[in-house]
Model the fold of this input.
Amino acid sequence: MKLCISSTGQNLNAVVDPRFGRATYYILIDSATNDFECVENPSAMAGGGAGTKAAQLVINKGVQAVLTGNVGPNAFAVLNAAGIQIYTGVSGSVQSAVDLFNSGKLQAIGSPSVEAHAGMGGGKGGRA
Amino acid sequence: MIIAVASGKGGTGKTTVAVSLALSLNSVQFADCDVEEPNAAIFLRPVIDEKIPVTMLVPEIDETKCSGCNKCSELCAYNALVVIGTRVLVFPNMCHGCGGCTLICPERAITEKPREIGVIEKGSARAMAFMQGILNVGDPMATPIIRELHHCLDRTKTIILDSPPGTSCPVIETVRDSDYCILVTEPTPFGLHDLQLAVETVRQLKVPFGVIVNSAGIGDEEVDKYCQREAIPLLMKIPWDRRIAEGYSRGEPIMAVMPELRQGFLNLHAAIAATCGAA
Done:
């Protein structure tokens, strides 16, 4: 199965990025063969809409499941509509996330895990 | 003449100044442009006799025509459109209403439909013409409502605009067509820091401006020194006075608790009018 894992680095030893829409990188990996490609997230610093943009990227890449820390409501709506499974609460290395997925211990979620703009950091989401 | 009352820091006394200035003058139109949380009405207590809905245009997709080419999604700078096969998900809250998707769609599958984002209320507070914009709770786009308020201005009157705080788009939309901008600050390091940001913004907009120090007596002298250094007119100081705070907590303007300050606001208006070359 083709997985997308939000990542802080460009290889399988990197730590999972807890934010989906504003992750630094996405590791796109075949869970059966462990073949992977790393994509930099062009919207990591976007003013808004990072979640939907990331979800669009994941769809265009033909991903079937997303593994991340948290996913917000807009990205969730898109991934859900596209029939992509979403696994949140994932931490540790990217490789360990893949192993966990393969062991069948992860459970897909049915609703977003955080509110909009949760991944934007202090101060950016407020009235400026 | 249009006078905008703005600030970098929030809670420095924009509404206090705007309301006091408006109450000091004759033939005034007051517009509360802080559409995310308008509060001048608390002090002016207007009678509202007209409510005008404000809409913006957002895309509507005819999926029977969509080929799934993805051009709309690629174009949208705000990521408000996502294409899944030949389904297009639209996120109206994220749309800025530019209409680009409608123009770029080769299948002409996109039309624009109005979406209500808020309301403009018009009325009067005694002799004063009053308006306020109110953005719907949960909606992020303040500027279309402020733009609509500007369309409703009566330029035969002295217009007082109560601006949102900060230096972002809603502030620029409020201030940019003004003849003069009053920047209200407090004499604290925080007040000075945000005043400097506001000054940079208003200079870019090329709107003449001056500073009012509110709560004068708290804090330090750094705002005075900054204004002197930058040759910015220090228009007025409003003293830190418990009576003002008590009146404020009851929804009473400064004029109601310290009528002796009225002359200060008349002088303020005269100074601004002289700067702008208007009566």
Remarks:
- Residues 11 and 38 of chain A are 7 Å apart (CA to CA).
